[in-house]
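A quick aside before the break. I want you to see a complete sequence-to-structure record at least once, exactly as it would be stored in a machine-readable document. Don't worry about memorizing anything.
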Amino acid sequence: MDPGAGFCPGVRKVIQKAEELLKEPSPVYSLGQLIHNQEEIQRLQDQGLNVLDHSQIPAFTENPRDITLLIRAHGEPPTMKDVLQKGKFRLVDGTCSIVRSSQKLARQYYENGFRVVIVGKKNHPETIGINGYCQNRAIIVEQMEDIDVLPSQIRLFVMAQTTTHPSFFASVIEELQKRGFRYNQQNTICKFIKNREEDVAQLARGCDAIIVAGGKNSSNTGVLYKTCHDINPRTYRIEKPEEIQDNWFSNNDKVGITGGASTPPWLMQKIKDELLTIFPSK
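That is the input. The structure line, written in tokens, reads:
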């Protein structure tokens, strides 16, 4: 099992904060799913965590409530934070410090006349949040074709969603340089994520097969899966142990187990236990 796998610091911090709040008498809500891992969300819901959808916010803020609302590590746009701060409930901001730095950076460059370009997923909550710090005028580059719509007449500031694949960010920068765009850039990919890329690449080279565990909507899990699969085609992405198929492996295989930044260590241990059930001699 990959010793470096498991929660990134930002996710670990917000999970710990949720667990602390759940010990208090007031009901605890998270705005949207706290992290992109349904198994961990279910564990926290079993402890009493409620999940509040963004569409419920207008009605939710109208009346005083003796509850605590926790902002997830992905962060929120400033307009949403303004609405929440007017609500008559306790608000706890669990935004990852790395994401918060990206938000400030986007605002700084936007206010200095740059057009902000975010390399990442258009509908990811982190990207939506960062975009809010530049009046929702950032251009999101999710695939290379998105570069075609970038304006050439103004200076760009290019940054990344913190869980973007490093090689994709590098490819975007290379293409911008090739096309002669005027830009400043800062690689805002989380250092934890960068280091994990190197770790899982080494794991993929040293194993016969790889299991990458994580939520289906986890961006980082997708990045790690691609890294492993590019090196080792016998890489399988799952969300829970029940998805493992016996015919993926043989009794002589060396199987590596890793997970995304929102994958809890206890889940990877369950996956290992499931493999040992299938292949008791391993």
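Two observations worth writing down. The radius of gyration is 20 Å. DSSP finds ten helices and eleven strands in the chain. We'll return to this after the break.
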